[in-house]
Amino acid sequence: MTNRQRVRLPRGGSAVLAAMALVLSATPTHATSASTSVGLPGGNKVAINAWHCTLYTNACDWKASTRMSGNRPRLARWIQNRAELEAHGVSVSVSISKNPEATLTMVRKSLGVVRWKNTNASISDTFGQMRPSRGTVYVSTRSCGSAQVSGAIRVSEKCAYAGAS
Q1: What is the pLDDT of residues 117-134, one digit of tens each?
Q2: What are the C-alpha distances in Å from 97 to residues 31, 101, 102, 126, 144?
Q3: Bridge partners of 64?
Q4: Is the whole-model pTM more than 0.70?
Q5: Contacts 24+ apart (CB under 8 A), 21-28
Q6: I need a surface site. Which of 7, 29, 86, 154 has the fewest CB within 10 A?
């Protein structure tokens, strides 16, 4: 004979447990994202993407990219991504990590800019982690891309914003 005990949940307790399980299991897949693109002569396209986590405890992954697709030409002379990473709230700050080839400039304690210019390539990706201070209401990622595709084709900076409006 086995000894079983029943656990009784307060009214509505099972719904709360189900919601908590959903949040905890889905946290890594929740993200805020935005993108924009520009069509180019010859059929190529440049897409600018911004992404960061929606839910976080201490740190939030982020990624920004500028990508050229098509094959006329297949590679740009240079392609650049500039990501503005910001913590929003009263007297907040953020620390930012980034990929090694990129540069980071802190504009103020709550805003950092990560930039990478890639040559003879079709992509410029930047990525890392934001660690916002307590009191941060939300974080945002603004991804801006530009490119010199050929001598005659230049893409001026275009941006995509992922964050609260």
Answers
A1: 999 999 999 999 999 999
A2: 18, 12, 10, 10, 18
A3: 50, 126
A4: yes
A5: 23/55, 27/53, 27/55, 27/56, 28/53
A6: 7
